[in-house]
Amino acid sequence: MLVFVIRRVLISIPVLIASTMLTFVIVKLSGDPLTYLKTRQSTVSKAEKQAFINQEAHRLWLDRSWPTQYWHWISNILLHWNWGPPVTGHDNVASDVFTAFGITARLVLVSIAIALILAVITGVISAVKQYSLTDYTTTLLGFIFLSMPTFWFAILLKEFGLKINQWTGSHFFGTIGDRSIPITDHSFGGSLKDIIGHMILPTIVLGLVGYAAWSRFTRASMLEVLNSDYVRLARSKGLSPRTVMIRHALRTALIPLTTVTALDVAALLGGAIVTENVFQWRGMGTLFLTALRAVDFNVMLGWLLVTATIVIAFNLIADILYGVLDPRIRHA
Amino acid sequence: MTIDLEVDDTQREADPDALLVVDNLTVSFPTDDGVVQAVRGVSYTVRSGEAMGIVGESGSGKSVSSMAVMGLLPRNARISGSVRFRGQELIGLDEDEYAKLRGNRIAMIFQDPLTSLNPVYTIGFQIAEAVHAHHEVSKQAALERAVELLDIVGIPYPEQRINNYPHELSGGMRQRVVIAIAMANNPDVIIADEPTTALDVTVQAQVLEALETAREETGAALILITHDLGVIAGHAERIAVMYAGKLVETGTTEEVFYRPRMPYTLGLLGSLPRLDKQEHERLTPIKGAPPSLLNLPPGCPFTPRCPIAEDICDRDEPALLAAEGTGHAAACHFRSRVADIDAAEMFGTDAADDAPEVLA
Amino acid sequence: MLETHETLKEGTQPGGPGVDKPTLTEREFTVKERKQWQMALRRFLRHRAAVVSLVVFVLLVLFAFVLPYFWHYKYTEFVSLCTQSNGLAGPCSPSLKHPFGTDSTHDMLAVTMRGTGQSLKVAFLIAAVGTGAGALWGVVSGFFGGFVDSTLMRLADLVLTIPSLALAAALAHKGGGSLVLIGLILAGVAAPYVARVVRGVVLSLREREFIEAARALGASNTRIMFRHLLPNTIPVLLVNATLLIAQGILAETALSYVGFGIQSPDTSLGVLISTNQGAVENQPWLFYFPGVFIILIALSVNFIGDGLRDALDPRQTRERK
Prior knowledge:
Number of domains of chain C: 2
Number of strands of chain B: 12
CATH architecture of the domain at 9-243 in chain B: 3-Layer(aba) Sandwich
Shape of chain C: elongated
Structural class of chain B: alpha/beta
Strand order of the largest sheet of chain B: 6-7-8-3-9-10-12-11
CATH superfamily of the largest domain in chain C: MetI-like
Structural class of chain C: mainly alpha
Number of helices of chain B: 15
Strand content of chain B: 15-25%
Distance between the termini of chain C: 58 Å
CATH topology of the domain at 9-243 in chain B: Rossmann fold
Helix content of chain C: over 70%
CATH topology of the largest domain in chain C: MetI-like fold
Strand order of the largest sheet of chain C: 1-2
CATH architecture of the largest domain in chain C: Orthogonal Bundle
CATH class of the domain at 9-243 in chain B: Alpha Beta
Oligomer: heterotrimer
CATH superfamily of the domain at 9-243 in chain B: P-loop containing nucleotide triphosphate hydrolases
Helix content of chain B: 25-40%
Distance between the termini of chain B: 31 Å
CATH class of the largest domain in chain C: Mainly Alpha
Number of helices of chain C: 12
């Protein structure tokens, strides 16, 4: 088992390295960071302007070849934990990215957890009661969730939250940011209420992205296992229906869900971009969009590096978990 | 039509040794194209300790009828008739009640050992689980029983093997594990559904041997379902031949093998290679394919493939009627005539020159 | 030897024993195929939601591409505004004259028809290019195996480590936001998903007898890939293509929302709801109508895809209830 884990970890490293290269190319293709200078109307002479542009390009290493730039970027992170300067201003790219990441991680993780739990419950019920009213209803709902533009639903939900706030005369549902500004109640209970109030709506939006797909998957996987020979043998042994369902059907049916969930983490991070934008959270999504508009390439590189690491890490965890849950993989 | 000596159900009921009584069992499945009549009124009785074989081509309903006995058919199956175990009616029993019987009193062995075992649990766990299902014993005791069972079915180093996962064992080994599971609670009946079909020929004999050991060990009655008459010959005392969802011939192995009364049985026997026949003997295939069980036409379902069919066969489906002897019955209008015909003669081969002096 | 080899491969030899057989098998195949398609059609027709969705989808296509010729407002045409409660001129709410109301310049029904049409075009483009590229990717990868396979599949894995919205936005940033460019970018982002699925199918087909047979007859790699493997992935591709239409519409919408999608003067449903999101409170029709059309397209296509899966994937046979 230890060998299995070590091997999987080692396989992830080249994937991560390749991913940083791909990331670098994409950021390079996304635009010229100095466009803002080149298009700016200025009173200075053309030569002076060009000199300043050249100076900036030199400062940001833009006048070097791509491989040199790449190496400069990645080695600075690895050796000095220096994520490079922003195109303008003096912000620290690393701390910007990690602050934003903390905010987004909370949203994404809670959404995944809730979506997974609900998906498994409804997926299993749908499979066990195939072609029942419950099955048809959850299937229809799943399809509707799958067919709704995330931000359209987010805006709808935001309106809904505001209406409820109006009716009840409270400010429970926060629709702007991840905390109230200014924070009025500093007690633990007050903070918790504030955090939860701000989290509910975005979590529902983001959770639905995963829920729709995962409940469909659970249903299909469960149906397949319920019709399998080994479930039939388990029944013919005289195990109680409950034991057959949980120990033999559910346990085996859920194994492939680990992989699917891990693969969808990237999609959820994408969904977070939209969700955060609607609810004006200052997380990864907002950071990325601002950076992309300004072609603030070090921020984008940092963003993509963190995201890719997260996705690869989730896939690694899923791989290992798969190995723990399915002996066939472990011994392979 | 003569209704001479129809096999009497009430008489069967009274049989004190009767363990499992299947009476007029009918199973149908609604499908896209209509209702498939998989089993059409099957009746048989299994007595304690005896071994009965059910023979038929795939699709003849032999597996479906045994699944119906185990209560393992999918929910969309429509079942009617009666299955009584020690006098208790099983059809319509709820899942919890059924669970108490399964594995405990009636056990089953399935066709494909490669998919029968759950891939994520050790075989020791899966055997112990069967013990636990019906007996309040410690984990240790159940595992010890698992080791003992593996030893009985002929798996070497059972103490180590219990920690193996199914994928680490060969097909033959896995089928032995399934047999061990079936015998775990000393059941009264073991139903083996094509237990050797998915296995290599060389392994088949070993698995059958393990099955035989299991029977001796538990004293259980055996229902051996197969399309392979060779398997039946050595392991069953009585035979029921199934065709198109019905029993078409029943009797002792002797009777059915040597004095078949139904052209289909005769055809099956003719297509079996035999060492006791003369060198130039050709196999006699039955031409055609079994009928679709969807919208069966009236009449005997074997008519299109039957060389001695007459007009009546197209009109009336013959009932399973006694031919001679105690239990020998056949569903053929001409059952008395069939007795005198040889397979080669009936189905025709080039080498049909030797006399029908089939050994008696 | 080599000659026979060639003729067998192409099947052009006018007579002789080599030709009889292929034509015979071919006839058998077409007969069987027609039967399979008939069965698939019957299974599809029994999926009620899929049939209803197909009708809805056809109506949506007509709405987008035919109705504009009959509607008395054009999407380019300025309309007179209505007097608001505060006495100022502003967007009209839905009425007989403007069933979908108006925004501050145009008839919303005409604009929605235009948006639906443009969105459908993008979606079809994504589905066609994405499926095509993904199929090629998957077939080559699965067929050659080994080094080619691991390189191509690792590349797919890499693309999948980046949130596709971020990837598409980054690539679209410099391009100016034309419909074709956005479609191609989103197709490129979707291709690795298709490639994975197709590769899986090809891997299972590769060892099958008919591929062995083709190889034994001396068929070239290209021929095996495009004449034998690719046609057998069509059911999977068809299902995937429908799902890509739905995902494409949604992806284009999301991209428009974050500001990197199709740019005006061109439009799409995504552009419409993004520009009108501020109106949700005061002129809700501007926000709801385009949104409902997106849902209608995506939902109907998703159901059609589900029906196709039922119809084309014989493993998932549905028993009748």
